[in-house]
């Protein structure tokens, strides 16, 4: 079978190689899955660079979430077991963590529903306790993680402010349903948020970026607001001023979604059931900006690494259903 392999760490376009490899063999409690669609995530780029919190042994195959097909024909979504990730024709995955693919979504959409939407749901509901009528600020609102948070925020009844970089991404954010869109390249984020909220600030701020985005968040968070830290796509991990959090009376909340697999797997299933319901109702639908052939996967991962994409890029293996 074909699989993309990384033999040394570096930029995805430089270190990913498409190779012929043996089909993986499932161990106890695992399933062999034929890959129907593999969603590209920013962690795939970090894995290539050797900068992710998990560092699989070299060589490895990137790809942390897929829509696949079981040997008995069931359509499922799964997180493949590294070092044999999803940018391949076949993968193995832990049977206990395999979830049914929502019927309302096609393969590419189903592949993109899992990590980003679970992160958004747990972050907004379990960690930040977002309430209907509150104002939610989403950084990188047109990206894969941000677009999921926008849709989930709207589904929860929040007023959503999306922060983006550039007019093309601003257009996408509006189409996603953002009530207010702020272009960080041409506008002052803090001033725009204060103006949009009558000076109050945002109740919940969803930050997958870190760096300057976090610094701006601390300046426009509302009284009793919550800054939700979900990642550092900027490459800069901020150092919060805890005295500022104290005197301004806001919370800094972290989310590591992967821990729920270890600590509370039943919550993962319950969340998936809720996401499946929201998809069936049309309240959420992953934004797929491109379906790319297997041969173009390295370029697609590089584009995600460079931050030039909107929504999700999804790799469709040759012969797989689209």
Task: Please provide a written account of the structure.
With 322 residues, the chain is an alpha/beta fold. It contains twelve helices and 15 strands. Strands 3, 4, 5, 6, 7, 14 and 15 form a seven-stranded mixed sheet that branches. A hairpin with a 5-residue loop joins β4 and β5 (75-78).
Q: How helix-rich are the residues, as a percent range?
A: 25-40%
How widely separated are the two ends?
19 Å
What gross morphology would you assign?
Answer: globular
Largest sheet: 7 strands, mixed
Task: Kindly report the average pLDDT value.
Answer: 96
Number of DSSP-assigned strands: 15
Order of helices and strands: EHEEHEEEEHHEHEHEHEHEHEHHEHE
Radius of gyration: 19 Å
Low-confidence stretches: none
Q: Beta-strand level of the residues, as a percent range?
A: 25-35%
Question: What's the helix and strand layout?
Answer:
Layout: E1 2-6, H1 12-15, E2 16-20, E3 30-39, H2 42-49, E4 65-69, E5 75-78, E6 90-94, E7 99-100, H3 107-111, H4 115-127, E8 135-139, H5 144-155, E9 159-164, H6 167-176, E10 180-183, H7 189-196, E11 202-207, H8 212-219, E12 221-229, H9 242-248, E13 251-254, H10 258-263, H11 265-280, E14 288-293, H12 297-306, E15 312-316
Parallel strand pairs: 8-9, 8-11, 9-10, 11-12, 12-13, 14-15
Antiparallel strand pairs: 1-2, 3-4, 3-6, 3-15, 4-5, 5-7
Helix pairs in contact: 2-12, 4-5, 4-11
């Amino acid at each position: 079978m074909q699989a993309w392999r990384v033999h040394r760490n570096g930029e995805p376009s430089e270190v990913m190689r498409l190779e012929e490899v043996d089909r993986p063999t499932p161990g106890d409690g695992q399933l062999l899955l034929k890959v129907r669609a593999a969603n590209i995530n920013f962690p795939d780029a970090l894995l290539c660079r050797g900068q992710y919190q998990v560092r699989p042994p070299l060589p490895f195959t990137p790809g942390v979430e897929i829509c696949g097909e079981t040997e008995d024909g069931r359509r499922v979504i799964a997180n493949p077991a590294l070092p044999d990730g999803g940018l391949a024709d076949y993968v193995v995955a832990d049977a206990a963590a395999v979830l049914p693919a929502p019927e309302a979504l096609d393969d590419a959409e189903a592949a993109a529903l899992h990590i980003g939407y679970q992160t958004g749901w747990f972050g907004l509901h379990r960690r930040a306790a977002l309430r209907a009528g509150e104002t939610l600020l989403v950084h990188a609102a047109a990206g894969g993680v941000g677009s999921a948070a926008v849709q989930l925020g709207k589904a929860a009844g929040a007023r959503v402010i999306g922060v983006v970089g550039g007019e093309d991404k601003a257009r996408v954010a509006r189409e996603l349903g953002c009530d207010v869109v702020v272009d960080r390249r041409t506008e002052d984020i803090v001033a725009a948020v204060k103006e949009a909220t009558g000076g109050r600030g945002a109740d919940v701020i969803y930050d997958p970026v870190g760096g300057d985005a976090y610094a701006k968040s601390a300046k426009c968070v509302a009284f009793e607001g919550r800054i939700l830290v979900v990642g550092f796509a900027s490459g800069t991990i901020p150092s919060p001023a805890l005295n500022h959090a104290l005197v301004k009376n806001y919370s800094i909340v972290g989310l590591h979604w992967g821990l729920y697999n270890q600590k509370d797997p039943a919550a993962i299933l319950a969340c998936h059931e809720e996401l499946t319901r929201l998809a069936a109702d049309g309240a959420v639908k992953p934004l797929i900006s491109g379906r790319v052939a297997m041969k173009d996967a390295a370029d697609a991962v590089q584009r995600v690494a460079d931050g030039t994409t909107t929504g999700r890029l999804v790799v469709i293996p040759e012969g797989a259903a689209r």
